[in-house]
Specification:
Do family serine endopeptidase, Thrombin, subunit H, PDZ_sf, serine protease, 3 domains
């Protein structure tokens, strides 16, 4: 009898060990489930989290075809042309000079030559609105867009925002496919991204990489900087193109690269779709982007500068100058003050200050928390409207 019980026990253990081996080999995620107790005292089995699934599942993505195919029809090539005047020869109107040399040096008014450039853009609305970089279409006399399906169209400029280097164009074509916007707040460093554009004019090209960093600023590229950094290859001609996730949803507008040779070195920057959408909405609805303004000249407060000024901390932004008769001047802000918070939001650097002030509504009240001569003070300022940026001379 005991011998029989022992055989049954041994067989049961053998079966359990075999089952455990099969599960650990083919379904390891099942072993990661944890037991939890509810408020009523009932024990339940908790399924593995998404992170645990990613770690335990040995599957790998072998293709980003789906994301590329979803986004490629929405990315366009942008061709711009500009008439450039060239000075005429000083003797071009001299009869004797023209007798010997003819009209090869031109006559009358200065000669006109056509300057060509290229870039990329993204169709963001079935109504024909296209986002691109301001520097792609700046000062252009004509803008032509070439779609992925072979169609071409002349584009008109709806509005530009040099502060973010964005521009909104519009084309009149039927059956336009628009890109889907992603939630940029869900983007994390390490996420796979695709860059789509027209590098060096070779035609539409897709490159892949990851998100290398978020919130890049102090690059001296734009006034308002909050870039997505990526190692996906971005080259001249990609400007204004799309940075998308693996599902083809728009994360940002490719804008700049860090390069010593002019080619990609694996450090590219894209304007987040959240900023691009705000610019698009303002330009389409109001004709221009409206931002808050308080009229100060900020400077990053380093630890060395803080020590020189006799401050206890290096948090905040030094007010190096105050625009006369501006909102801050009227509120009593003085050069040498250190701005540490706006409406209770901590300010760490000039980039953060500019971005925060820009989001304030002109005409509204804002509370500035300042440190003046090592004493904390609070001032109420009436937010003004940021003046239009000065455009480059042509």
């Amino acid at each position: 009898m005991l011998h029989r019980i022992w055989l049954i026990f041994a067989q049961a253990v053998t079966i359990l060990v075999a089952a455990l081996f099969v599960v650990s080999t083919f379904k390891p995620a099942w072993l990661n489930r944890t037991s939890q107790t509810t408020a009523s005292g009932v024990a339940i089995i908790q399924a593995p989290s998404e992170d645990e699934k990613l770690i335990s599942t040995p599957s790998a993505i072998s293709s980003f075809r789906q994301g590329a195919q979803a986004a490629m029809p929405t990315v366009v090539n942008v061709y711009t042309s500009k008439k450039v005047r060239t000075p005429q020869h000083p003797f071009a109107n001299d009869p004797i000079f023209r007798h010997f040399f003819g009209d090869r040096f031109g006559s009358g008014d200065s000669q006109r030559q056509e300057s060509m450039s290229l870039g990329s853009g993204v169709i963001v609305s079935p109504q024909g609105y296209v986002l691109t970089n301001h520097h792609v279409i700046e000062a252009a006399d004509e803008i032509e867009l070439a779609l992925a399906d072979g169609r071409k169209a002349q584009a008109k400029v709806v509005g530009v925002d040099p502060d973010t280097d964005l521009a909104v164009l519009k084309i009149e074509l039927p059956n336009l496919q628009a890109i889907t916007f992603a939630d940029v707040n869900q983007v994390k460093v390490g996420d796979v991204v695709l860059a789509i554009g027209n590098p060096f004019g070779v035609g539409q090209t897709v490159t892949s990489g990851i998100v290398s960093a978020l919130g890049r600023s102090h690059l001296g590229i734009n006034t308002f900087e909050n870039f997505i950094q990526t190692d996906a290859a971005i080259n001249p001609g990609n400007s204004g193109g799309a940075l998308v996730d693996s599902q083809g949803r728009l994360l940002g507008i490719n804008t700049a690269i860090y390069s010593r040779s002019g080619g990609s070195l694996g450090i590219g920057f894209a304007i987040p779709v959240s900023i691009a959408k705000q610019v698009l909405d303002d330009i389409v609805s109001k004709g221009a982007v409206t931002r808050g303004y308080i009229g100060v000249e900020p400077k990053d407060l380093t630890s060395e500068l803080a020590e020189t000024l006799g401050l206890k901390a290096s948090d905040g932004v030094l007010i190096a100058g105050v625009i006369r008769n501006g909102p801050a001047d009227s509120a009593g802000v003085q050069p040498g003050d250190v701005l540490v918070a706006i409406n209770g939001t901590r300010i760490d650097d000039t980039s953060g200050m500019l971005n925060h002030v820009a989001q304030l509504t002109p005409g509204s009240k804002a509370e500035l928390q300042l440190v003046r001569k090592q004493q904390s003070t609070r001032l109420q300022v009436t937010v003004g409207k940021r003046p239009k940026p000065k455009l480059r001379a042509e």
